[in-house]
Amino acid sequence: MCSSPAVRQTATSRSAEPVVIAGGGIAGLTMALTCHQVGVEVIVLESVRSIAPLGVGINLQPNAVRELIELGLGEELDAIGIEATEWALVARGGNDVWSEPRGRRAGYEWPQYSVHRGELQMLLLRAVNERLGPGAVRTGHRVTGYRNSSDGVVAVVDTRDGATTEVEGSVLLAADGLHSAVRSQMHPDQPPPHWGGQILWRGATLGPPVRTGASFTLIGTMEQRFVHYPISRPDPETGLQLQNWIAELTVDTSEGLGASNWNEKVNTDAFLPEFADWTFDWIDIPSLVNDAPAVWEFPMVDRDPVETWVDGRVCLIGDAAHVMYPVGSNGASQAIVDARVLGAHFIEHGVGPDALGAFESQLLAPMSELVLRNRGHGPIGILALVDERSGGYFDNIDDVIAHSEIDAYMSTYKAAAGFAIESLNAAPPTIAPGSRVTVRS
Ligand SMILES: Cc1cc2nc3c(=O)[nH]c(=O)nc-3n(C[C@H](O)[C@H](O)[C@H](O)COP(=O)(O)OP(=O)(O)OC[C@H]3O[C@@H](n4cnc5c(N)ncnc54)[C@H](O)[C@@H]3O)c2cc1C
Fold it and tell me: Distance from the CA of 59 to the center of ligand 1, in angstroms?
């Protein structure tokens, strides 16, 4: 479990300079709200000129939902998210391998939500603007590097009008994602993003509810799979829901890595023929893909773990720290948890290098392990096993794999990813209500 003990504290934050955050994505905006909650001044520098609701679906695990609820965003989140109730693995032939309850139905005290990434980002942005004032997020500000001094840090910034400027702070938190400029300076010799040959095509299509109407479903094999989950409630008039989907193929890596941007729009020729006969009585995958208004391509990449996330008063958080393959729904969830854990360390150690070091000590090792674990099979390993034993076609799954074998595999994965039910339910809040940063650092 990646939460920190709750702490309440005393005295004044050392420097008058704000916490400077590079990046206004899920990690950066949650960090800004957390700083505000604990009484620390903050500025977010975001490279795009205007934050737009980009992306398609993401899943927020109960540990992350808990943090957003504790930030006072529970109602807004419930209004944009679908509470996921089922997680199902389905073989290539369309028959169930495994299904289990999720969120509160599984015993968590907090729900799991499937949500549109862009809507979540806009929700966080609205909250930041309301609570901190509209000046807190400076768009059109690309952080290109930093300089540490003994008692502060300077972020070097290219602005939208072509100027270069500097923003001083007590610490710089790099929430600038997969292609983090701050990480590049901190680790100048890091290799390019790691790609294992998988390409994801993503879309969202209006369609009738599938399974429970709130299920996360993973169909196929290691080399060819389809992920499906709804990200809106059914329209009261049409009954249709927005269905998030991901088609994934493994290709020859000798063709080289493509663009690895989240917003690369493409047509469906490259993958749809491979799914032409994936029509089952409960889901028609070719129609779902064909009816999508837009399709985005994204090579599945991560980065090799690094030995440190901290350089003086600079610290990496979210994807900048530990971007990972999206096979276990932990990217956005962990970005939120990072912000909260760091906030707790600000309370305990003050805003400075001690807090950054404590954050790294708590999370770097388990996150590095998770990055590497997600490169392996993740929960999809079970489908690989079923495929190996049956070719994906069977009448009775019990003839292929024992229930206890799947159960054991899943429990290990969930514990490693930090969302074991008992420990989350028993953990105190990461940041106790009313806690403020008062320690000198
Ligand atoms: C446009 C977009 C669409 C996405 N769509 C999906 C999706 O559909 N499904 C999914 O699972 N994941 C998606 N992701 C990734 C997902 O949001 C992250 O894996 C996860 O939420 C962790 O968030 P993060 O805040 O660490 O990083 P990100 O969400 O990547 O946010 C990084 C932010 O930093 C900004 N930024 C980048 N470089 C700089 C810089 N040098 N200076 C200042 N700001 C900078 C970016 O514009 C962005 O706002 C998307 C990411 C982006 C940026």
Answer: 14
